[in-house]
Amino acid sequence: MEELNKHFINNNRRHFLKKLGFGIGGLATASLLNPFGAFSGKEQLDSLGLNLPHFAPKAKRIIYLFQSGGPSQLELFDYKPLLNKMRGKDLPESVRNGQRLTGMTSGQDSFPLVGSNFKFKQHGESRAWVSNLMPYTAKIVDELCFVKSMHTEAINHDPAITFFQTGSQQAGRPSMGSWMSYGLGSLNENLPAFTVLLSRGTGRPFSQPLYSRLWGNGFLSSLHQGVQFRSGKDPVLYLKDPEGMTRGERRKMLDYISELNYKQEQEFGDPEINSRIAQYEMAYRMQTSVPSTMNVDDEPEHIIKMYGADSKTPGTYAANCLLARRLAEKDVRFVQLYHMGWDQHFDLPSQIEKQAKDIDQATAALILDLKQRGLLEDTLVVWGGEFGRTNYSQGTLTDTNYGRDHHPKCFTMFMAGGGVKPGFTYGETDEFGYNIVKDPMHVHDLQATIMNQMGIDHTKFTYKHQGRRFRLTDVSGHVINDILT
């Protein structure tokens, strides 16, 4: 009798209604919407009302090449010859206009303008400006859509990266990949919908760290958090069976655990229990799918040569770009690649040359490889960091050396594939490279546009939490149709 009373105490109204909805019809509908079971528990019910995608998508998957640290647009893509002519002269106050500075340069007595030490040329039919730091990227400019008018609200790394990844400068919101996993589910039952790859650049190898909360699920089910694929013998931690355990024994153990978890879910109605069951099952399937995905030994020599020699060294940016293509081939919904080391406050010419060499060949190879396999058309590739760099030197300016501080007011990103215009440049900065003078694009605009390409109306894609409906773009953001085909 005590157990019976306990059962009824735990079955509240919400739990009863949830169970009522999970009749044969409800389960059948959920399986049709998402045959791989990307939703579970309460989220399966919620997903039935999402009606995603809202319209026909142009892209099925996203590869986001996040350049952590803030690449200098002035050394890579935003050519400003006036800065070379005015080298050493102070930034006019009429240009700066009292804009916020970081604590690293706000105390400087002067703000000496500095142009790039590197040469720029126009390339392709689109005549896009690219510096000699990026020779491979220069060859594919007609595949790229440059946005030279990105701007953000955060001026320091952690809130700026968090803003790009989650739509908020404060930690705790779901990452973009988690939103995609929750809203669209998985296309591959043997791999996570959202995977994460990390690499450390040679430009400044011990610069800003990254935190796993950047690919966290926030208030969404833990089923939707990013799964980090690491270099080394254990790409996903704790995935291997303990020594001495056979595959059959593992299967039997999981069946028993699932039975116990199911009984708990029946009693308490906690949707996280269903997520736990799904994660155990995914981990079991990943035991065979992950090693085969991570093993690039079957890649032909011409592909290895295309990505560069580093592509055979696990954990490098080049190796991760190759893995990103393999994951895209297997229909992983969202591949997040982070490359650290772009924070050039000092010794910029030397550091950025190494950093650009890390990523140039492999980025171009990834885009060309996707194109030759027919995957670029429905894969959206995004490249960029959390902010740009100042047009004045941080610290002492010499004939050969300088640094640049953080600059959130304007910077450059580029995209390829997935229904964005190839060979196109959007936005423009002033001749000092300090302010936007044409077609600004905010972080929320970028997020709205990315979701649009995945068939999602960002204003309708919400999740109710603590009495409020949240969305990736918060309460703003506009789709930038001018960059879309």
TrEMBL record:
Q: Source organism's superkingdom?
A: Bacteria
Family matches, as InterPro entries: Alkaline_phosphatase_core_sf (IPR017850), DUF1501 (IPR010869), TAT_signal (IPR006311)
Q: Which residues cross the membrane?
A: 20-39
Q: Does the keyword Transmembrane helix apply?
A: yes
Keywords assigned by UniProt, alphabetized: Membrane, Transmembrane, Transmembrane helix
User: Which PANTHER family does the entry mention?
Assistant: BLL7424 PROTEIN, DUF1501 DOMAIN-CONTAINING PROTEIN
| Protein name, UniProt field | DUF1501 domain-containing protein
> Which organism is this protein's natural source?
Polaribacter cellanae
Lineage of the organism: Bacteria, Pseudomonadati, Bacteroidota, Flavobacteriia, Flavobacteriales
